[in-house]
């Protein structure tokens, strides 16, 4: 009984409440984190971890990877607890550009062409939002998403500028100087632009290998984009050789793989939005950051084992 009274903050001798307990009962004192977490039976490291969770941000490696699409890393400063998470913004820019493009390439419900109808989205959604997201990741010290979003933001700006006649990307290929837009249908232009798409596929291959340390959904996105960009390069090479039938078939398949990437992208975007508002429903993304150990983790484990 005495132990119970002590745990309730009562004076054992006279059964009265101490001043701290009296103030809590009357609602005149706010909750004290030190009294809530720093008990004698709680180890100091565990108590410190609880205080960090209550006073700032202290999230698990899996939760960090879901929010920032990168393995948890150590950076100086408190920007991650001060600034908003830029990752969903960059993902949104990607999805609102890639999704309509995939339907254009597949030719669904009368859509067609190379996506020129969505050129505004490529500039101001894919280009602008992904560049802004990349800058945000740079400020937070997240190198991998910083490079990924920045490079894809540049891709959308490049793609939009190529489709826009005002940038003159096709003027050097036109057979009629008075009609510069005709250059976009010449074999030389097709063959040249295919190399840009091919090396975008190579870039996504590198991202795919790096994504093996992030999550399953990110791996699916990059794996499908590798195939899609290679198919697009093949499309343009086929068109350069006047193999229009084969080129059209490759174009549809490329659009299908982009559509798969979009499905995975919308899923991880939904998972991030639910996580950022602390929604009770959590969508799993298949965290790989703890499954595939990093080089520094292996080095530290080896050092501890030898010690």
Query: How far apart lie the N and C ends?
Result: 48 Å
Mean of residue pLDDT values = 79
Which structural class should the secondary elements be placed in?
mainly alpha
Number of strands: 0
Which geometry do the CA atoms define? Answer: elongated
Largest sheet: none
Q: Which radius of gyration do the C-alpha atoms yield?
A: 27 Å
Strand proportion: under 5%
Fraction of residues in H or I helices: 55-70%
Unreliable spans are 1-15, 19-40, 47-61
Order of helices and strands: HHHHHHHHHHHHH
Can you count the helices?
13
Give a brief rundown of this model.
This protein is mostly helical and 307 residues long. Helix content is 65%, strand content 0%.
3D architecture notes:
This protein has 307 residues and is mainly alpha-helical. Helices cover 65% and strands 0% of the residues. It contains 13 helices and no strands. It has helices at residues 2-7, 19-25, 33-37, 44-55, 61-68, 79-82, 87-106, 119-140, 143-163, 187-211, 216-240, 244-276, 295-306. Helix 7 runs antiparallel to helix 12 (244-276). The longest helix is centred in the last third of the chain and has 33 residues, at 244-276. The model is unreliable at 1-15, 19-40 and 47-61 (pLDDT under 50).
Question: Secondary-structure blueprint of this entry?
Answer:
Layout: H1 2-7, H2 19-25, H3 33-37, H4 44-55, H5 61-68, H6 79-82, H7 87-106, H8 119-140, H9 143-163, H10 187-211, H11 216-240, H12 244-276, H13 295-306
């Amino acid at each position: 009984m005495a132990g119970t009274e002590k745990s309730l903050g009562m004076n054992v001798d006279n059964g009265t409440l101490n001043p701290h307990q009296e103030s809590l009962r009357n609602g005149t004192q706010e909750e004290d984190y030190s009294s809530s977490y720093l008990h004698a039976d709680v180890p100091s490291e565990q108590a410190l971890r609880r205080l960090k969770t209550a006073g700032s941000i202290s999230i698990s490696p899996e939760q960090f990877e879901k929010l920032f699409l990168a393995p948890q890393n150590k950076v100086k400063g408190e920007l991650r607890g001060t600034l908003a998470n830029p990752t969903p913004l960059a993902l949104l820019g990607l999805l609102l550009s890639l999704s309509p493009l995939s339907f254009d390439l597949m030719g669904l419900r009368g859509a067609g062409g190379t996506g020129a109808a969505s050129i505004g989205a490529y500039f101001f959604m894919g280009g602008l939002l992904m560049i802004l997201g990349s800058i945000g990741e740079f400020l937070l010290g997240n190198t991998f998403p910083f490079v990924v979003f920045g490079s894809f933001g540049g891709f959308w700006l490049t793609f939009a500028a190529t489709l826009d006649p005002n940038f003159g990307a096709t003027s050097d290929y036109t057979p009629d100087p008075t009609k510069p837009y005709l250059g976009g249908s010449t074999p030389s232009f097709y063959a040249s632009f295919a190399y840009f798409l091919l090396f975008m596929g190579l870039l996504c291959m590198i991202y795919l290998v790096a994504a093996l340390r992030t999550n399953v959904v990110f791996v699916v996105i990059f794996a499908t984009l590798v195939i899609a960009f290679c198919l697009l390069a093949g499309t343009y090479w086929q068109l350069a050789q006047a193999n229009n039938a084969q080129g059209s078939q490759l174009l549809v398949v490329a659009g299908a793989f982009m559509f798969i990437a979009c499905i995975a992208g919308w899923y991880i975007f939904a998972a991030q939005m639910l996580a950022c508002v602390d929604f009770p429903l959590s969508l799993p993304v298949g965290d790989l950051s703890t499954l595939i150990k990093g080089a520094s983790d292996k080095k530290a484990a080896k050092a501890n084992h030898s010690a």
